[in-house]
Amino acid sequence: MSEFDSELDVRGLRCPLPILRTKKKLAELASGQVLRVVATDPGTAKDFEAFTRQTGHELLESTRGEGDEFVFRLRRK
């Protein structure tokens, strides 16, 4: 079993696009499935914390990837 069920690349996109694309992608997943998101906007860390608080989805991981990348794993509620 992989660490995630689907992946979303939002590198190069600025707020609010990473959150909007994530919201759309999560809607395609079943409850409990995990979405891995790779972003380059430094503001996405705080954005995803607020997004998961407001929506009930679970932020499993928020880490710094290679170079200017940020990696997030979210579980759909």
Describe this structure in words.
This protein has about 80 residues and is α+β, with helices and mostly antiparallel strands. The protein has a single domain, classed as Translation Initiation Factor IF3 (2-Layer Sandwich). The protein is about 30% helix and about 30% strand. It has two helices and four strands; from the N terminus they run E-H-E-H-E-E. The protein has helices at about 15-30, 45-55; strands at about 5-10, 35-40, 60-65, 70-75. A four-stranded mixed β-sheet has the order 1-2-4-3, with helices on one face. Strand 1, helix 1 and strand 2 (about 35-40) form a beta-alpha-beta unit. The relative contact order is 0.26. The mean pLDDT is about 95.
Describe the structure concisely for a colleague.
With 77 residues, this protein is an alpha+beta fold.
The number of helical segments is 2
Kindly state the percentage of residues in helix.
25-40%
- The fold-level CATH name is Translation Initiation Factor IF3
Tell me the radius of gyration. 11 Å
Uncertain spans: none
Strand order of the largest sheet: 1-2-4-3
List keywords for this structure.
4-stranded mixed beta sheet, single chain, 77 residues, alpha+beta, 4 strands, 31% helix, Translation Initiation Factor IF3
